[in-house]
Design brief:
mainly beta; about 5% helix; 11 strands; about 150 residues; globular; 1 helix; six-stranded antiparallel beta sheet; Lipoxygenase-1
């Protein structure tokens, strides 16, 4: 079933360095440098059933965070077949790779999976699980009640 997915990004630059992500979605596997306002759009013919779109934030180092700057990826919006809703983010999972020595110094270990996060401040994987037909999934996700 033809499905359109559009993700809009913003990025925070650190010392002139731009965030880089690595897409991991079906046959679409490439690196993308994110500028101030970036986006990606997929127009795919997907089989009915469950799917996952994901990317890895891959180029942040400990030196990319200081009192003035923080290299980060910010997800501004997700649209599936032209429909945008905050509840879509509830199905997104961010799995940060917490840096050392910060991680070891925490008195309480941070969660390995963060749901609904839009601000990606560490390297790590972000994924969105959804199903096709997407109109049915969106209907359930947004809490519109019964569907046929």
């Amino acid at each position: 079933m033809l499905t359109n997915i559009k993700i809009d990004f913003s990025s925070q630059i650190a010392d002139g360095k731009q965030p880089v992500i690595q897409w991991n979605f079906l046959e679409y596997q490439h690196k993308q440098t994110l500028w101030a306002d970036s986006g990606v759009e997929f127009e795919l013919d997907l089989e009915n059933g469950d799917h996952c779109i994901s990317f890895d934030f891959i180029n942040k180092t400990n030196q990319d965070t200081n009192d003035q700057e923080d290299l980060a990826v910010i997800i501004k919006d997700i649209k599936i077949n032209g429909i945008s809703d905050e509840k879509i983010f509830n199905h997104a999972i961010y799995r940060p790779q917490y840096p050392e020595p910060w991680f070891s110094q925490q008195s309480q270990q941070p969660n390995p999976e963060l749901y609904g996060h839009r601000y990606l401040g560490w390297n790590g994987n972000w994924s969105l699980n959804f199903s096709v037909p997407s109109f049915k999934w969106l209907h359930q996700t947004m809490g519109f009640g019964w569907h046929y």
